[in-house]
């Protein structure tokens, strides 16, 4: 499959993509790719898949599942597919392959298939964890339980003042300056300027409120 159909699909996709780019009015390849959407890609894949011939598909399956002669027709009383094989032909060929793989008689294949299907029948599926389960797992790993985490949470503090922000930013500025990081220092200075603007607005609002 990977060496035939998928390879053919990729080749067809590249051809359709190049054809779409040639037919378009974009000035260059980069502009064309930037304008591509997921819908465009899906449409190209659809065209590329439709261009794969029935012969390629048949040859792909024949590598792993040999098919009988395509001369078989609907006259046999069974509906055949596009390469002339009936459902019974495919089932018989698959059954023989499984029997050879398991090294068992072909009559025992149904029994083994049923065993495979029922292998996981009694296994539990997805299950929601309770708070108790989470607490037990946390204790086993030495981590705090959800209730302990809530106790450890500190009450929310008030927002820092502009004066505190400026003080902390000054520390950061001094650090970047000492490290020779001019770009980072400029960014911190920009932040400090914005904080000072906020500080000036707050002071003006305070003065207006006190004068009224």
Automatic annotation (TrEMBL):
InterPro entries linked to this entry: DDE_SF_endonuclease_dom (IPR004875)
Region called Disordered, residue ranges: 65-88, 118-163
Superkingdom of the organism of origin: Eukaryota
Residue ranges occupied by any DDE-1 domain in the UniProt entry: 1-61
Recorded coiled-coil stretches: none
Transmembrane segments: none
One of the record's GO molecular function terms: nucleic acid binding
Listed Pfam families: DDE_1
Protein name: DDE-1 domain-containing protein
Organism, as annotated: Bugula neritina
Lineage, uppermost ranks: Eukaryota, Metazoa, Spiralia, Lophotrochozoa, Bryozoa
């Amino acid at each position: 499959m990977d060496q035939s159909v998928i390879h053919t699909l990729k080749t067809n996709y590249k051809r359709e993509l190049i054809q779409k780019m040639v037919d378009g009015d974009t000035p260059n390849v980069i502009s064309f790719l930037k304008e591509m959407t997921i819908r465009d890609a899906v449409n190209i894949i659809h065209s590329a898949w439709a261009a794969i011939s029935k012969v390629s598909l048949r040859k792909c399956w024949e590598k792993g599942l040999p098919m009988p002669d395509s001369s078989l027709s609907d006259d046999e009383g069974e509906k055949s597919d596009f390469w002339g094989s009936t459902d019974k032909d495919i089932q018989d060929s698959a059954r023989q392959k499984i029997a050879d793989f398991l090294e068992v008689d072909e009559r025992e294949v149904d029994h083994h298939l049923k065993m495979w299907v029922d292998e996981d029948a009694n296994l539990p599926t997805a299950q929601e964890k309770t708070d108790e389960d989470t607490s037990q797992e946390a204790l086993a790993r030495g981590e705090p339980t959800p209730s302990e985490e809530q106790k450890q949470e500190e009450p929310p503090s008030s927002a820092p003042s502009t004066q505190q922000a400026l003080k902390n930013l000054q520390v950061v500025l001094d650090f970047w300056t000492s490290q020779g990081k001019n770009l980072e220092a400029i960014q911190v200075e920009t932040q400090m300027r914005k904080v000072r603007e906020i500080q000036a607005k707050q002071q003006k609002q305070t003065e207006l409120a006190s004068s009224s």
